[in-house]
Design brief:
The complex is a heterodimer of chains A (309) and B (305).
Chain A: E1 4-5, H1 36-39, E2 53-64, E3 67-78, E4 82-86, H2 93-99, E5 110-118, E6 121-122, H3 130-136, E7 137-140, H4 151-161, E8 165-166, H5 169-179, H6 183-186, H7 199-212, E9 217-221, H8 229-242, E10 247-251, H9 255-261, E11 264-272, E12 278-287, H10 288-293, H11 298-304
Parallel strand pairs in A: 3-12, 4-10, 4-11, 7-9, 9-10
Antiparallel strand pairs in A: 1-8, 2-3, 2-5, 5-6, 11-12
Chain B: H1 27-58, H2 65-68, H3 84-115, H4 121-133, H5 138-152, H6 159-183, H7 187-195, H8 200-229, H9 232-236, H10 257-265, H11 270-301
Helix pairs in contact in B: 1-11, 3-6, 3-8, 3-10, 5-6, 6-8, 7-8, 8-11, 10-11
Classes of the chains: A alpha/beta (309), B mainly alpha (305).
């Protein structure tokens, strides 16, 4: 077994008591509108088991230059839970996702106001090192993007560049590939290029690569949108597994996916203000079961029932 | 309000039953195809004719004398003359150009592509100047080298002066080629690297540069090929027309193949023309060898995304 240690960005909070919350309200109050498309297929979300926020967004706005892409977003990210962000194109869900590990820093002119805290620490404080932030908060992208290197080197890259103390890299690579449910498919060809894999395998390789650096949170930006339904199902199964150890935030266009995998769901939409400018807004955040069966906001209801978006 | 009636008519040629097998002649297609083939033929034909001409002309001189013997000013000794001093001079200069120009060019390109904020006026000015420098005639670089490097810096008419000036001359080519190669590396690779907690330099050195190697190598070698054929700046920089010794250091006098060829050709005797043709073939062989390396490197390390 490999033991991996690294210097923390700050002290992680001592094990907090996990609060079990009430289950969703789908059984008690069915909304009047038909939500058959969503509700019939599944039980609308997992039971949320934790309300310990590992991240908190409050009053977060993201600007590209002078343009305010997303306005005034406040929501928690609960520990070891899957939080989904849904909404129509251009509603700013990916923008918010990228602001959670400072990937927005890489876009010239992007600016974040409000506060994003991680264990109570402001991620945008002056003395916070974005490199350290990304080591704690990993990201999986929309299009599988393995490095043009061997499968082994793809997984080992993160531990190498972050200077993790690794006793046995082989073990670490195997563990990461096992955790990403890819080991059995690639164990005999670790030296072949990551680009030689199928799309679904590439995406699981990207997940393996991300968990190899042992982040606390994994952000996923529409991780299945380039995959076929079978590969998608595999990634979704993987997400369930990963939620035992990791906090996951996923952006998805697919409402069924959000309903299937997530504990909490945030619904975003695009609003046009008086100056005819579009801004992304968070409309509703709640437990997934509640959001899909008993939405508080009319716009959420319209969206999930397919009336718009 | 009544619904509008929509009637559609099929275009005649796609009416059901029209023969699919009846090939229509399309004169425009044919004309363009022929024009393009003619262009290719002209370009290729001229090149082949030139090559054939120098090969025939220099055939008698294509042997080891070319690189084992020194040039001579005496017609009576032409039988045993070669271009060794020019060949060695060219190899000296081109090696030095590689050493000077490639690191500077590649790192400049990395800075401009990966680090520079293109919204800053000074970075935009830099970019504009590099584009313009690539178009400056080489004789201008020669005069600049004469004034600043040979005279003001006091380096004189030496190998190092020639190498510095030729480096400056091809630097924009190297920078532009390297930037293109770096730009061709998908942004998603950089993002993946950053998302794993890699620093900027780690991302550049471990992901971007290895992926850009084929493009950088190709551009660099083509730039060196251009430097190797330059005669104009060297004329100003005091390349010697006849020397019977090889350069032995950075501060040595020198000559180079293009200069040697030029001086042979200005002579009236036919023997000199023959020797010049032989030297041309030698120079071409060097350039072709370098370009082959470029193609080999590109194919060997090419990445598919």
């Amino acid at each position: 077994m490999s033991t991996v240690t690294y210097e923390p960005l700050h002290r992680r909070p001592q094990h907090q008591s996990e609060v079990t919350t009430v289950n969703h309200s789908s059984t008690t109050s069915r909304p009047a509108v038909s939500i058959s498309a969503i509700a019939d297929t599944q039980t609308a979300g997992h039971q949320a088991t934790s309300t310990v926020p590992v991240m908190e967004l409050s009053g977060v706005s993201v600007y590209y230059g002078a343009y305010e892409a997303v306005r005034d977003t406040s929501m928690p990210i609960q520990r070891k839970q899957i939080t989904a962000m849904i909404g129509p194109s251009g509603c700013g869900k990916s923008t918010i996702l990228r602001s959670l590990n400072r990937m927005n820093d890489l876009i010239p002119g992007a600016r974040v106001t409000g506060s994003v805290t991680y264990h109570g620490q402001d991620l945008y404080a002056k003395d916070v090192d974005p490199i350290e932030v990304r080591r704690r908060i990993g990201m999986v992208f929309q299009k599988p993007n393995p490095f043009p290197k061997s499968i082994y080197d793809n997984v080992a890259y993160g531990p190498r560049v972050t200077g993790m103390k690794v006793d046995n890299m082989d073990d670490l690579v195997e563990k990461a590939l096992r955790d990403a449910a890819l080991w059995d498919e690639v164990k005999d060809k670790l030296k072949t290029s990551g680009l030689a894999l199928s799309g679904g395998q590439q995406q699981r390789l990207c997940i393996a690569r991300t968990i190899a650096v042992k982040p606390e949170i994994i952000l996923m930006d529409e991780p299945c949108s380039a995959l076929d339904p079978i590969a998608t199902a595999k990634i979704e199964d993987l997400m369930f597994e990963l939620a035992n150890d990791y906090t996951i935030v996923i952006v998805t266009h697919n409402m069924q996916q959000a309903a299937r995998v997530s504990h909490y769901t945030a619904f975003f939409t695009a609003e046009v203000d008086q100056e005819q400018e579009r801004h992304g807004r968070l409309v509703e955040f709640s437990q997934t079961g509640k959001l899909f069966t008993n939405p508080a906001d009319k716009r959420t209801e319209d969206y999930i029932t397919g009336r718009f978006g | 309000m009544s619904a509008p009636t929509i009637t559609t008519t099929r275009p005649e040629h796609s009416a059901p039953g029209s023969a699919l097998t009846q090939r229509r002649s399309r004169p425009g297609e044919l004309a363009f195809r022929l024009a393009m083939q003619a262009c290719l033929l002209i370009a290729f034909g001229v090149l082949t004719a030139l090559l054939a001409w120098v090969l025939v002309k220099g055939w008698n001189r294509l042997d080891s004398r070319l690189w084992t013997e020194m040039p001579t000013g005496l017609v009576s000794r032409l039988d045993t003359a070669g271009v060794q001093s020019a060949l060695v001079g060219t190899l000296w200069i081109i090696s030095l150009v590689a050493v000077i120009c490639l690191p500077i060019g590649i790192f400049s390109a990395i800075y401009l592509e990966e680090y520079a904020d293109s919204n800053r006026w000074y970075n935009r000015l830099l970019e504009l100047n590099i584009q313009n420098l690539a178009g400056v005639p080489s004789i201008i670089f020669g005069i600049l080298g004469l004034g600043i490097i040979a005279r003001t810096l006091g380096l004189g008419f030496t190998v190092i002066t020639a190498a510095i000036v030729l480096s400056l001359l091809v630097l924009p080519v190297v920078i532009i080629a390297t930037r293109e190669a770096i730009r061709a590396v998908p942004q998603s690779i950089r993002q993946a690297s950053y998302a794993l907690g890699a620093t900027k330099w780690q991302t550049v050195s471990r992901q971007v540069l290895p992926s850009a190697v084929p493009g950088i190598a190709t551009g660099s070698i083509l730039a060196l090929s251009r430097a190797i054929g330059e005669a104009a700046p060297l004329i100003v920089l005091g390349a010697v027309t006849f020397i019977t010794f090889n350069p032995d250091g950075l501060d040595s006098r020198y000559t180079a193949l293009p200069i040697q060829i030029y001086t042979f050709i200005t002579r009236s005797q036919a023997e000199y023309a023959e020797l010049a043709a032989g030297a041309i073939v030698l120079l071409l062989a060097i350039v072709l060898a370098m370009n082959s390396i470029a193609i080999f490197v590109r194919n060997r390390f090419e990445k598919r995304w």
